């Protein structure tokens, strides 16, 4: 015999306890993340956290490695480094722009890059951008792509 169904409010609260919170609506991180969400891994932490949890063969819904523009454009061997880690830009890795200086110094439009449009392989582009607006410079509008 099944136990009685929980009241809707209590059932919803229990469901929410399995999720984390904290992102704004315009960042690439979700406000509520479940165990089945795509895993976002910062490139500088790749070696420490790229393995799936113990007992798992892979991340349930895949992963995306986020590379800072300074890491990507600052390394003359970045392509080889990525291949050694089985990372391919636009497939399972993206350059993640967060600062206007990174955007201005290595503008993806000048490189012919497209913003990613998927969290699954293939990602549909080489980068995502979440750059805050600023009044300190001309053309300081918010940049939100991918």
Using brief descriptors, characterize the structure shown:
146 residues; alpha/beta; extended; 6 helices; five-stranded mixed beta sheet
Strand coverage percent: 15-25%
What is the CA-CA span between the terminal residues?
49 Å
Category from helices, strands and their pairing: alpha/beta
Give the low-pLDDT segments: 23-31
Major β-sheet annotation: 5 strands, mixed
- What order do the helices and strands follow? HEHEHHEHHEE
Domain count, please report it. Answer: 1
Q: What is the rounded Rg?
A: 19 Å
Number of helices: 6
> How would you write the strand order of the largest sheet?
1-2-3-4-5
The average pLDDT value, as a whole number, equals 82
- Give the helix level as a range of percent: 10-25%
Strand count: 5
Inertia-based shape: extended
How would you describe the overall organization of this protein?
- By secondary structure, this protein is of the alpha/beta class.
- The protein has one domain.
- It has 6 helices and 5 strands.
- It has helices spanning 8-17, 46-49, 69-73, 78-84, 100-105, 108-111; strands at residues 39-42, 63-67, 93-97, 127-131, 143-145.
- A 5-stranded mixed β-sheet has the order 1-2-3-4-5.
- The longest helix has 10 residues, at 8-17.
């Amino acid at each position: 015999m099944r136990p009685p169904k929980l009241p809707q409010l209590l059932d919803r609260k229990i469901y929410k306890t399995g999720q984390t919170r904290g992102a704004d609506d315009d960042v690439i991180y979700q406000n509520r993340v479940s165990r089945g969400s795509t895993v976002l891994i910062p490139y500088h932490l790749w070696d420490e956290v790229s393995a799936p949890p113990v007992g798992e063969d892979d991340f349930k819904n895949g992963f995306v490695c986020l590379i800072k523009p300074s890491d990507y454009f600052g390394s003359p061997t970045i392509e080889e480094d990525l291949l050694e880690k089985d990372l391919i830009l636009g497939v399972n890795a993206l350059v993640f722009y967060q600062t206007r200086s990174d955007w201005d110094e290595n503008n993806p439009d000048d490189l012919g890059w497209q913003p990613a449009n998927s969290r699954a392989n293939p990602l549909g582009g080489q980068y995502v951008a979440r750059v805050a607006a600023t009044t300190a410079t001309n053309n300081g509008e918010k940049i939100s792509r991918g």
